[in-house]
Amino acid sequence: MDSIVNLISDIEQAENINLILYICNDHSSKRIDGSDYFNLYNCLKSNEFDSKRETFLVIHTYGGNISATVRFIETLQEYFQRFNVFVPYKAMSSGTLICLASSRLLLGRLAELGPLDPQISSESIQTNVPSIISSADIKSYINMSREWFGVNPDQSIEILNQIVTHIFPTTLSYFYRAEKYILGKIVEYLQINNVDMTIDRAFEIANSLVNGYHTHNHAITRTEALKIGLDIEYPNDKLERTLTELVDLVQGFMRKAMTNESMGFIDSVIGTSSILVCNTH
Questions:
Q1: For residue 172, what is the enclosing H or E element?
Q2: φ/ψ (deg, to 5) at 54
Q3: What are the boundaries of the signal sequence (predicted)?
Q4: Do strands 84-87 and 54-60 pair parallel, antiparallel, or not at all (unpaired)?
Q5: Range of the domain at 231
Q6: Looking at 140-144, 167-171, 203-207, 247-251, which range is the least confident one?
Q7: Does residue 174 share a domain with residue 76?
Q8: How many structural domains does the chain have?
Q9: Could you report how far apart the first and last alpha carbons of the chain are, in Å?
């Protein structure tokens, strides 16, 4: 752990930046949850940041709970008026929302963002359905009925009845509210960091991220991110190599811990040049 903290400090000095890590274990099912913004807070309050430097969050995550993600963002905003995000590999699903809240978004060559359509476990809904369903799945059912089976608009009530038979109405209203919430947050973050962006353009981008993809695990590369209108940057080779090697070191540390019973299984690491906080189970 000391080697990681020391490397963070060395990078800060060499690049003249403040550096924060949020890295999830590739071998874990860890997703962003309520523990993360508490761990982030404990890291931030234990560190003295140079207000004259740019702050970079280096992130690797497959996403998680939207409400917890928003609290994670708000915790960062409590300490920094502006912060940048660097993605070496993945910031999928709600991890993409963190990226959208940044002042500068730097994507490495292998970086992947992801769609933001709301999802819910189907265990509490009904058996014989996929373990996870999203709002996009429900909307696609209507389109599929029309395109595949020629169902006409006059039969929309029948289609709705079929959906309600399998998915409780309040679950449908949850999807509706969740989608509205996510769309609103995307628009909010885009406009905060792009003062010239109109609300119509921000909503167009938000709608692309929420409703524009056929699968939730679609990988949005940096080329595609530019096409949908995201304001991203390509990091210079030195910075990308340095920060990617740091992430690889943290992943190696978490893999090593998997073989050490005294350390426990580390799901994620949040760290600064003063402290590392490991989420274990």
A1: helix 169-193
A2: -70, 145
A3: none
A4: parallel
A5: 2-114+219-280
A6: 167-171
A7: no
A8: 2
A9: 18
